[in-house]
Description:
By secondary structure, the chain is α/β, with parallel strands linked by helices. The chain is built from six helices and five strands, in the order H-E-H-E-H-E-H-E-E-H-H. It has helices at residues 4-58, 91-99, 114-122, 139-154, 197-200, 214-289, and strands spanning 76-81, 107-112, 126-131, 160-170, 173-182.
Amino acid sequence: MNSPRDLRRRIKSISGTAQITKAMQMVAASKMRKAQQMALAARPFARLLYRMQRSATTRAPRFTHPLLVEREVRRTAVILIAGDKGLCGALNTNVFRLAAQFDAASTVYIAAGRKAAQFVARTRRHLAAEFPYGDSPAFVEARAIARFARDLFLGGEVDRVLIVATRFVNTLTQLPVCIEYLPVGPIQTLRLPGLDEAESAAGDGEDALFEPDPASLLEYLLQHYLNIYIYFVLLNAKASEQSARMVSMKNATDSAEGLIDALTLEYNKLRQGNITRELLEIAGGQAGST
């Protein structure tokens, strides 16, 4: 049976933990709002650029590019995007579970985020490169990742490139996804909410007039599209991370407060019992003396 002193110590310790988790919840909530706004603001642009890329490539049927060429898959590169920190529930674990399904002997990993690099090192897989990205992902960070992945593909070191990351749906829902990145397929899309199958396959095979010429225009558009693609994935991953961390810290704070209430109730009952026993002893002593 716990003594009043032990209960007071536990209540004090848990109260300190609750203060920490509450502060982390507030910080995560502030970062979450900014990250969600960035991800939602970039969504229409990413959708429009995808439609432009699809429409342009389908209207130039004679256009060929090494990034469009499909070949037999012997070696795969996985762009693994996770957070720099933990305390975000099962978010990183779900992503790592998906990334662990690939054959380690024929897969190289491009890690974005410290946790992703730690997972690759811990599981003794081949880490090709590690790229950091901040709480507010910058386009230059996404462009560096996209350039490295394109160089691997164009150099023949890998035959396809996949992205394993988290897609942000809302504050309570974040889904781990595996996305085809290279070669650029006919219906490549992030499966954004509101983007239906008819829109994802938009485009027709009619010829169109390109200026200055189809090759120059489509090559520029393709490169820019792939950079934006990675940037949008980073925004989704960061919005998912901050949302999951805010929810996780809120749950931890609520659990700590519930435990404090239970311990306080137990402490008050024990204290009341001790007071009652002491009063009975005093009353018994007085009765015996008379």
